[in-house]
Amino acid sequence: MPRTAEIFSNIPKRDFLSLFHEDQTQYQNVVKYLNFRKEDISKATGVPLTSVRYDEKIPAELIDRMREWAILLNLVAEHFQGDKRKTVLWFSIPNPMLGNVSPRDMLRFGRYKKLLKFIVNSITENKR
Question: Any idea where the domains of the chain sit in the sequence?
Fold first, then answer.
């Protein structure tokens, strides 16, 4: 049976990057940290380019993906003790443990689950 700490290892302790406000994902902030264009978001989420928007008509699929990305960003920021610069750098440079693909590109290619597993496993191993 997993230890209690491991069960909650996919949730950051706090919002280090101001990606949430009153339980609402701040979509523009997520996009800014990942340096994504609308084309990147469309490719990553499968949402048609013409439907990529951040207002009250945002597609449900996009709401879910952006929340997941915000959580990943905060998990990595937590590891770097809230250092925004290091967090952005980690997401943007190729990682040998991910086949020399950057975490940002993993998201862009729709590989969120693999990246989440990698991050959670890394955090868990780092705490041992």
Answer: 19-122
Residue 20 neighbours by CB distance under 10 Å: 17
CA-wise closest residue to 124 among 4, 1, 19:
4
Nearest 5°: phi and psi at 24?
-105, 130
Q: What is the mean pLDDT of residues 19-28?
A: 94
Contact assessment for residue 61 and residue 47, using Cβ atoms and an 8 Å cutoff: yes
| Amino acid at the residue 14 | R
The residue-averaged pLDDT of 9-37 equals 93
Please answer whether residues 70 and 20 qualify as being in contact, where contact means their C-beta atoms are separated by less than 8 angstroms. yes
pTM exceeding the 0.85 threshold for the entire prediction: yes
Cα separation of the two ends of the chain = 16
Whole-number pLDDT of residue 52: 97
| Spatial distance between the Cα atoms of 83 and 90, rounded to a whole number of angstroms | 11
Average pLDDT over residues 27-53: 96
